[in-house]
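Hey,
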Amino acid sequence: MALPELGESRRDAAARLDEAVGLAEAIGIIVAERMPFRVRAPKAATLFGSGQVETIAAAVEEAKAELLIVDSAISPIQQRNLETATKAKVIDRTALILEIFGERAATAEGRLQVELAHLDYQQGRLVRSWTHLERQRGGFGFLGGPGETQIEADRRLIRDRMAKIRKDLEQVTRTRSLHRSRRQKAPWPVIALVGYTNAGKSTLFNRLTSADVMAENLLFATLDPTMREIAMPGFDKAILSDTVGFISDLPTQLVEAFRATLEEVISADLIIHVRDISHPDSEAQRDDVEQVLKEIGIEGAPMIEAWNKIDALAGDELARVRAEAARRDNVVTISALGGEGVDALIACVAARMREDCKLRTITLPASAGQAIAWLHAHSEVMGEESRGLETDYEVRISDANWARFQAMQAGAA
């Protein structure tokens, strides 16, 4: 495992190296050695300087390693030259992440998205065949396996396969749009969880929905989006969506391939950004998530930050984090694992959702039991005053629900 540090970085070098090791271990790779390097002037041929390449090659030989992972993007030429120098298979950060996604994708849609990303990555390279298309197992052949050959890529077949996948994903996008339009007609608010991988999104999702989405101390434990109903004060219900975790240097191919999935975030009424506040790179991870959101077209959307894993903090550091969160309107400190602060988060979400609601007075006869029940379910009834056979209801209601209520009344008339 080689970690090149290119130029100035705000990330903690040790934490970045730990993350790279975690990525490798996420698919069962045993890391025999980890080596950080500062690369001041990247070499076109090998990325690393000649002395660094010799050091890496010696470490590979001593450990009898079969695979060298470079935690950076490398060109096909750099990959080939490093393989020649180290006599080991070499993959970069992008290939490793794609391999993880290839093994983890559980649905047909997820597998198509990852395969599209992989083919886009592969078509510009001359160092692996596309024969994985014939295989049924997860992963994409970076790590070896049956059917792998060297330099036999047929670009026309790859392009044809990519065109077919894009066509299939367009159908997925249309289906999602139909489901989304039905939800909007309901209309229940949609809340999307986003965050850096392993920040605790799925743990929070499970706690809020009593679901059993895979939640482990593992990078990219969740790939396929999951949606569940949750109770929300002042609302009939809300839809909570759990999404794929983001990561620094997330391959652009994956951002593009997962656009259909991430559209659930684009259309959300509110975004909860779950952050691992105990992580030394928490600020840099926040920047990475915001960059991906920007890439998919989300800027200025209503957002709450859930500073998770406060159970991992203690003493002065815990006090500092709590004090900083208290100074911000859109931050709630929580422990998704233990449940601390989750009720406060729900209350904060409900309050933000109500900001789009207006106070209205509605007069209904006592006989309008169905309409009265609907108001209690879909709005916040602030007060009521009886006037003989009629009652004035003071309600806080969203524009969408107000329009829906008016349509219901017009249909009943």
